[in-house]
Design a protein that fits this description.
By secondary structure, the chain is mostly helical. 53% of the residues lie in helices and 0% in strands. The longest helix is centred in the middle third of the chain and has 33 residues.
Length: 138
């Protein structure tokens, strides 16, 4: 069922007008769809609460709602990151990497050994130990 949604509102200040105009410009042809997605995400938990009176169902709706709204927040952060990367001038000196020769150590790394022997555990089983026949490490 497709219904048309028209918002006839008086905005409380110029920031509302500017924010919505920028979002409309960014989303261009799908702005109304995005608006409906956000409105649905915000009001769905309220509708579930009114219909079911179930805390569990409302919490489920809130989690789904939160995912939807956080997607828009992540998009905002992504747009800022992309703008910062493209606005920074990448100069040849910024790309230059000093070459540094790393030589391997002359002696291979030897981890420190514990001075004491591990305790011997006697399980009392007649079966031979899985370690029988192995010589201790040097």
């Amino acid at each position: 069922m497709a219904e048309r949604f028209k918002l006839d509102a008086v905005y409380p200040n110029a920031d509302y007008v500017k924010s919505l105009a920028l979002a409309k410009q960014y989303f261009y042809g799908v702005f109304a769809t995005k608006c409906m997605a956000v409105l649905y995400a915000v009001y769905k938990p309220l509708a579930v609460a009114l219909q079911t009176k179930s805390v569990i169902e409302v919490r489920k709706a809130i989690e789904l709602s939160r995912d939807t709204v956080e997607t828009f927040y992540e998009l905002a952060l992504t747009l800022v990151s992309a703008d910062e990367l493209s606005s920074e001038a990448i100069t040849p000196s910024a790309l230059a990497v000093e070459s540094e020769i790393v030589h391997p150590p002359s002696k291979p790394y030897q981890p420190p050994r514990e001075a004491e022997e591990p305790p011997v555990v006697d399980s009392g089983s007649p079966a031979p130990s899985i370690y029988a026949g192995f010589e201790p490490d040097e």
